[in-house]
Amino acid sequence: MRNAATQPIKHLLVRAELTLRAALWALATRRLDRLYGDLPSKPSAPRKDAQSQAAALAGIVEAHCAAGTTIIETNSVAAMKLDTAEYALSMMLAELRDVMVAPQSSWAPARQAIVPKFARVADAAAQPAQAA
């Protein structure tokens, strides 16, 4: 008897779910119609045959290859101009170094180079033998 009672309840639940889904679908459709209204239909472009598609594709590839070549040439010219500007700047700095006198500062002590004293391996190995 219990099984017979659950079937109508399941049937009612499924029916309620389908009704709710239909109501939500109608609400979404009305919302889209209010937002966009009746959009004019756009006629689809006529299909091209294989030869015209290949020609269009070849044109696109050729245009992009030409653009790539132009970019490479422009990049190399820019690199040469940067090298020229760097060389001119280094030469200007060298000329300014030759002309300008370094200012003497009274607050900084004179710098002395610290040169480490390295011992050769042969000398270091010979020292313990000599000490013994």
Summed up:
This protein has 132 residues and is mainly alpha-helical. It has helices at residues 2-36, 50-99, 121-131.
Structural features, described:
- This protein is an all-alpha fold and 132 residues long.
- Helix content is 73%, strand content 0%.
- The protein contains three helices and no strands.
- The protein is elongated and about 105 Å long.
- The N and C termini lie far apart (112 Å).
- List low-confidence stretches: none
Q: Care to count the β-strands?
A: 0
Order of helices and strands: HHH
Biggest sheet, open or closed, and with what strands and sense?
none
First and last CA, distance: 112 Å
Overall morphology: elongated
Structural class: mainly alpha
How many DSSP helices?
Answer: 3
Q: What is the percent of helical residues? A: over 70%
Radius of gyration: 43 Å
Average pLDDT score: 83
Strand content: under 5%
